[in-house]
Design a protein that fits this description.
The complex is a heterodimer of chains A (476) and B (659). By secondary structure, chain A is an alpha/beta fold. Chain A has three domains: 111 residues, Gyrase A, domain 2, CATH 3.30.1360; 118 residues, Up-down Bundle (Four Helix Bundle (Hemerythrin (Met), subunit A)), CATH 1.20.120; 171 residues, 3-Layer(aba) Sandwich (Rossmann fold), CATH 3.40.50. Chain A has 14 helices and 13 strands. The longest helix of chain A is centred in the middle third of the chain and has 33 residues. The two termini of chain A are 43 Å apart. About 5% of the residues of chain A have low confidence. Chain B is an alpha+beta fold. Chain B has four domains: 322 residues, FAD/NAD(P)-binding domain; 143 residues, Elongation Factor Tu (Ef-tu), domain 3, CATH 2.40.30.260; 78 residues, tRNA uridine 5-carboxymethylaminomethyl modification enzyme MnmG/GidA (Arc Repressor Mutant, subunit A), CATH 1.10.10; 73 residues, GidA associated domain, C-terminal subdomain (DNA polymerase, domain 1, Orthogonal Bundle). Chain B is built from 21 helices and 23 strands. In chain B, the strands form five sheets. In chain B, strands 1, 2, 6, 7, 8, 9, 20 and 21 form an eight-stranded mixed β-sheet that branches. In chain B, strands 14-15-16-17-13-18 form a six-stranded antiparallel β-sheet, with no helix packed on it. In chain B, helix 1 packs parallel to helix 11, helix 2 runs parallel beside helix 11 and helix 3 packs across helix 4. Chain B starts with 13 loop residues before the first strand and ends with a helix. The relative contact order of chain B is 0.12. The model of chain B has no long low-confidence stretch (mean pLDDT 93). The chains are: A alpha/beta (476), B alpha+beta (659).
Chain lengths: 476, 659
């Protein structure tokens, strides 16, 4: 069964409001997954329950995160009395580009697909909503729309996205060719050798695919807050720093180790950058059940951090190994600042000694990364705070420029096809790992390639045959 | 040129007779085409260059293999004869891919080459409606009305002119052929047989675009001079089910005595002989103009294109019971004869091998298949059908499949019936013909399973389920065979129902079987079908606990098991097929004025006007036609339909007024 299809019905560009239209069987069901009604005619609770041609006020939420995307008005139309003659809904949302994209994304992730160029007009005509005299105009609309889409896609596909998608497809075709060889040339030794490596090759193609998809998300990060995680062993001064940076006593600060048993979050801005400060429980080996939960949360917070502020007080004698391991194994993209805390209570030479002691230990351990910053602070005197602010600004700028280059995926339709292909490949890898016979994984891989073919316009069979010939010495 | 008018000018020409159909060439395509026409009641003239070489296997002495085995089964299910002949002439049989899932099983058999040809000749000669004649067709005759050329006759070199309503050209690799070994070029067909001269030009004059392709064949050596003891042996499997469903039903016993094949690897010496002599290769010196296939490269091509691969596998295949000839599969070359001797002698076990036939490359004329429609009729010359290598394909099975379809469709045309067109979701035959006609080919086209989008559905075991009814409808499958097929289908359905509805309570015996199969032991009752769904459990494993099990033929059990095990994938495949069929079922009339539809891009207008696709689906596969063009066509079709019905209403209204 076909999915309902959606697209922005208002012209591109920023406007006061924008209208997103979704039509086709199942439109209401998709809308119900993402739309929470606040107020509606006849006290309807769901979109499916709304009468035709009534409007509801409510929130579009992303069910995967529970986050509110926008406050909108939703109008319901019932078949056959709608523009296309099918069940449909129109969502009037705020006019920003991001909002529109986000709503489309949420709809697509919940069972809709992007409309083809001119599809609404085409369907309207096919279901008899327009008379014969308009046929020519309809064909022109389709042609013009697809021209526009083609031009947009071409300019888009010219650059790095095209390269990325091509690379990705090449990899996948190469994997597929191995499956095919395994079937078509049962005795070929090269095919058997390649087969042994194929699941790994598929996994690395999948990683590329995820990377590509994540650029679509990275584009969104810029509009969100940067995560700064403060960590250290209990009583290293984390909460004091959080309080200082956020300007009020958010965390309970005592001298008893393990006071902050959960993560605390404060949203604020530092040197003009919107940030989320996260104070973690001290990470250490613990038997205390409640504290252990906090330690786990702290670990989770670390993995999502843009900047980690690692606090070590002069009073600590040894370095807490568990904590150091976790921090130093974070990916390079996460900035790490080592801060010797409570600098007001120690003299300069012991601070210096502490710093070099830690730096030496890190060097000995041969981590694949180093520290990005090393300094000292006092939440009492405010010493060293300026340096932290500079680090935040610098990180933000770097992130920004890096992201600007990496945001390749902007077309929702491409995201749609890529995500569908990804789920097929996930299943394909799962099956090939399970050691089932390979004609099933190869079917999944073919369907994944058919999805990508919708982006590149390639016909799977033809490309596949070309790949087999270039990769293997086929023939009797 | 090309008309009966010329008769007056040539004293040696004479009217030799009138036939419904002339089939030109009696190779694998021609034999099937003639057989189909004759069985459908048409008077059929079958012309061949060499009466002793019917259905010749000039390249490797085998039939079937991956994708090709499926084709043979399909030909058989439709009522063709290749499978039957192959079963009778096999000296070794193997089911390829047996270690893999049943969806990719592929039957393959080594042929006794001479026996195959002899049997086919005898079979054809016994056919009531076939007149088999040795003769070289050099010209087609046609008449032209309203700018349309319609075929009405053919002429042979000896001056015999025949009146025909249709002709099927199956000229293989014979048209304007020349063979090449190094510097030596001979104007000849394969195996040193005479070639066909003139027909190609006549076809070109009719407006058909021609191409020139190249293929090749390896050396044959005398088994007496070969030491097979140093080679790896490839034994056959006597229990392979026959290709032919008819043979299967009649309880055909395959030959038990299996002639083994062998394999060897090329040595570093082979490589150096080739590399040192590359300057004498006609492929690299530019002597060969034709386009060769990528999948069947010559051995020198393999070494040049895959320099990292240090060795290549060569299969040593016997060519029959009554000959000592061995075929070296994978060792095709167009290097000079003296180099071929060194090359063969560099192979293990072949250091003293005596070459009986040298390898050669062969160039020949064929058509651009995009000038034909899906029924394999030429769009340039009505009544002319083409099949096999003349359409740019390669391989015996590909040829036979097209021959059968071209024969059927020539007959359908003469009988005033609708053409029979198999689509990509019905058969490999559909994929083959659609690929050739819709996409065209720039090299000899070989069938591969990767070309088929719906492979899990297009299996060798269910070709009868897919096609027997169509064969019956055409008239090539008789009622008795159709009845037997219906019974098989019923047996499969009944057994599936029984397995679905038979529940086994937990028991010690079941526990034991499940453990033996390495399966999870369930705590509650379970149906036999659920058990068979598990990959690790087979139908046979449950015999001892399934006491109401009926006696069933192996082919029924196989079908039942595949249907159950592949259920999920078959459902997925069905969804994809439905999506495919939606466009395929939207038919396009050949009269659509594409050049006047302004919404179409210029390239699409030109392509569509030339090709005249039969459906929206076919149109979508033509290169240069975009999805937007298809959307535009969809709207055009709808507009047309409405216009028609509006006109009809007006007409009906006016008739009423008149009354």
């Amino acid at each position: 069964m076909d999915k309902p299809y959606c697209a922005c019905a208002t012209p591109p560009g920023v406007s006061g409001i924008a209208v997103i239209r979704m039509a086709g069987e199942g439109s209401c069901e998709v809308a119900d997954k993402v739309f929470t009604i606040r107020r509606a005619a006849g006290d309807a609770r769901t979109v499916s329950g709304m009468s035709g041609y009534t409007v509801a006020y409510g929130l579009i939420k992303d069910p995967s995160t529970g986050k509110v995307v926008d406050e909108v008005m939703l109008t319901r139309f019932c078949a056959p009395h709608s523009y296309t003659g099918e069940d449909s809904v129109e969502i009037s949302c705020h006019g920003g580009l991001t909002v529109r994209q986000e709503i489309l994304r949420v709809l697509l992730e919940n069972g809709a697909r992007m409309a083809e160029p001119g599809e609404f007009t085409k369907k309207a005509f096919l279901s008899g909503k327009m008379d014969l005299s308009q046929a020519e105009a309809v064909m022109d609309v389709i042609a013009a729309d697809s021209d526009l889409a083609l031009r947009a896609a071409n300019s888009h596909l010219q650059g790095s996205l095209k390269t990325k998608i091509r690379e990705l497809c090449d990899d996948l075709y190469s994997c597929m060719a191995v499956f095919e060889m395994w079937i078509d040339e049962p005795d070929d030794e090269d095919a058997l050798k390649a087969l042994a490596r194929n699941t790994n090759a598929l996994s690395s193609a999948r990683e590329k695919m995820r990377d590509l998809l994540s650029t679509y998300r990275q584009g969104r990060i810029l509009s969100e807050r940067m995560n700064i995680v403060i960590c250290g062993i209990p009583n290293s001064g984390k909460s004091s720093l959080l309080n200082y940076l956020s300007g009020y006593d958010r965390a309970i600060v005592t001298d008893v180790p393990g006071t902050t048993r959960d993560t605390l979050e404060v949203s604020t801005s530092m040197s003009g950058v919107p940030v989320k400060l996260i104070d973690t429980a001290g990470i250490r080996e613990t038997d205390d059940v409640v504290e252990a939960i906090g330690v786990n949360r702290a670990t989770d917070a670390l993995s999502e951090a843009d900047i980690v502020l690692w606090l070590v007080s002069c009073e600590e004698e040894d370095i807490e190994e568990t904590l150091m391991e976790r921090i130093m194994n974070l990916p390079k993209e996460t900035k790490i600042g080592l801060l010797i805390s409570k600098s007001d209570t120690a003299d300069e030479s012991s601070i210096g000694k502490k710093k070099s002691m830690i730096e030496d230990t890190i060097r000995e351990k041969n981590y694949s990364r180093g520290l990005d910053f090393c300094g000292s602070i006092s939440a009492q005197t405010g010493e060293g705070i300026k340096e932290i602010e500079d680090l935040v600004r610098k990180t933000y700028d770097e992130l920004g420029s890096a992201h600007a280059q990496e945001v390749l995926l902007t077309n929702q339709r491409h995201v749609d096809h890529l995500s569908t292909a990804l789920t097929k490949i996930d299943r394909c890898i799962e099956l090939s790992r399970a050691g089932v016979s390979l004609e099933e994984p190869s079917l999944l891989l073919r369907t994944a390639l058919e999805e990508l073919g919708e982006i590149t316009g390639d016909s799977v069979s033809d490309t596949l045959v070309d790949t087999i010939f270039s990769r293997f010495c086929v023939g009797k | 040129m090309g008309s009966w008018e010329q008769m007056k000018e040539h004293e040696s020409w004479y009217e030799a007779g009138t036939y419904d159909v002339a089939v030109i060439g009696a190779g694998h395509a021609g034999c099937e085409a003639a057989f189909a026409c004759a069985h459908l009641g048409l008077s059929t003239l079958l012309l061949t260059l060499h009466l002793d070489q019917l259905a010749n296997l000039p390249c490797n002495p085998s039939i079937g293999g991956t994708a090709k085995g499926q084709l043979v089964r399909e030909i058989d299910a439709l009522g063709g004869i290749m499978g039957e002949m192959a079963d009778l002439s096999a000296i070794q049989t193997r089911m390829l891919n047996r270690s893999k899932g049943p969806a990719v099983f592929s039957p393959r058999a080594q042929m006794d080459r001479a026996a195959y040809s002899r049997r086919m000749k005898s079979r054809i000669e016994k056919e009531e409606n076939i007149s088999l004649v040795q003769g070289e067709v050099v010209e087609l005759f046609w008449e032209e009305t309203d700018g349309k050329k319609i075929l009405n006759g053919i002429r042979t070199r000896s001056g015999a002119c025949y009146h025909v309503k249709a002709a099927v050209v199956c000229s293989g690799t014979y048209m304007e052929a020349r063979t090449i070994r190094g510097e030596v070029i001979v104007e000849s067909g394969p195996d040193g047989l005479s070639r066909s001269v003139g027909l190609s030009r006549s076809m070109e004059e009719a407006g058909i675009r021609m191409q020139r392709f190249k293929t090749g064949t390896p050396v044959r050596v005398n088994a007496r001079t070969v030491d097979t003891s140093v080679m790896e042996i490839q034994p056959g499997e006597p229990d392979m089910p026959p290709f032919s469903y008819k043979n299967e039903m009649e309880g055909f016993t395959p030959r038990q005595e299996q002639t083994p094949c062998y394999s060897v690897w090329t040595t570093p010496e082979t490589r150096s002989v080739i590399t040192e002599n590359m300057d004498r290769s006609p492929l690299y010196s530019g002597v060969i103009e034709g386009t060769g296939p990528r999948y069947c490269p010559s051995i020198e091509d393999k070494f040049m294109r895959f320099p990292d691969k240090s060795r290549h596998q060569i299969f040593v295949e016997p060519m029959g019971d009554e000959t000592q000839e061995l075929y070296l599969q994978g060792f095709s070359t167009s290097l000079p004869e003296d180099v071929q001797v060194q090359m063969v002698h560099s192979l293990p076990g072949l250091s003293h091998a005596h070459i009986q036939r040298a390898a050669y490359a062969i160039e020949y004329d064929c058509i651009d298949p995009t000038t034909a429609d899906l029924s394999l009729e030429s769009t340039c010359l009505k009544g002319l059908f083409t099949a096999g290598q003349v359409n740019g394909s390669s391989g015996y099975e590909e040829a036979a499949a097209q021959g059968l379809m071209a024969g059927i469709n020539a007959a359908m045309k003469i009988l005033g019936r609708e053409p029979v067109i198999l689509d990509r979701s019905q058969a490999y035959i559909g994929v083959l013909i659609d690929d050739l006609v819709t996409k065209g080919t720039k090299e000899p086209y070989r069938m591969m399973t990767s070309r088929a989008e719906y492979r899990i559905f297009l299996r060798q075991d269910n070709a009868d389920m897919r096609l027997t009814a169509i064969g019956h409808e055409i008239g090539l499958i008789d009622d008795a065979r159709f009845g037997a097929f219906e019974e098989k289908r019923k047996a499969i359905e009944e057994e599936k129902t029984r397995l679905r509805t038979t529940f086994l309570p937990p028991s010690e015996k079941l526990h034991e079987i499940l453990t033996r199969c390495g399966s999870t032991v369930n705590q509650s009752g379970i149906s036999l079908m659920e058990l068979i769904k598990r990959p690790e459990i087979h139908y046979a494993d449950l015999a001892e606990i399934d006491d109401k099990r009926p006696e069933l033929p192996a082919s029924v059990i196989f079908a039942v098991e595949v249907d159950i095990k592949y259920e999920g994938y078959l459902a997925l495949e069905e969804d994809r097929i439905k999506k495919f069929a939606a466009l395929e079922n939207k038919k396009l009339s050949p009269d659509i004025p594409y050049d006047k539809i302004t919404g179409l891009r210029l390239e699409a207008r030109a392509k569509l006007a030339e090709r005249k696709p039969m459906s929206l689906g076919q149109a979508s596969r033509i290169s240069g036609v975009s999805p937007a063009d298809i959307a535009v066509l969809l709207v055009y079709l709808e507009a047309n339909k409405r216009e028609l019905s509006e006109n009809k209403e007006i007409n009906e209204g006016s008739e009423k007024n008149d009354g």
